[in-house]
Sequence to fold (153 residues):
Amino acid sequence: MDTNGPPRHRPAPVRPRTRAALVSGLAPRFTLMIGDPRVATAPHVSCVEDTIDVHYPETRISCRLRRLPATGALLCAFRVTHLAPDGTAEEHHHLDLTLTGPTGSAAQREAVLSHLHAFRCAAAASRVRAATRVLRGDPHLHRPVVHTFLAAA
Fold:
């Protein structure tokens, strides 16, 4: 028998209070576009801080968002990298698009989505062209050659 008194219990661990995540930047206002079918097949879509990133197997698209101080319009700076079938960077494209209206509005989301979709379609078409390209040889190597022979009579 234990004569030292009542059994001792360990104190309950102190759990930190949960805090709401601080959301900053312009990109979180575009998070509703993640559910759109045009980007649903992308393995990676993120809207963090001031950047929207969409990665497809054939292209990587990054859209940097910035509010223009003079007009209040939204500048969308697209940076696109088309990938070769082996995953290496093949082509780089840049496009700056200025959008008016409230940031993250349905019209702005639609404009960003249509550009993302267009870049993906262009990358897919580029891959198809590369896969079906017929290599042309040097035209001088395939010239018809005329052979003449001397004959004695």
Q: What stands out?
A: The helical segments are 37-40, 106-132. The chain has a mean pLDDT of 81. Strands lie at 44-48, 51-55, 59-67, 74-83, 89-99.
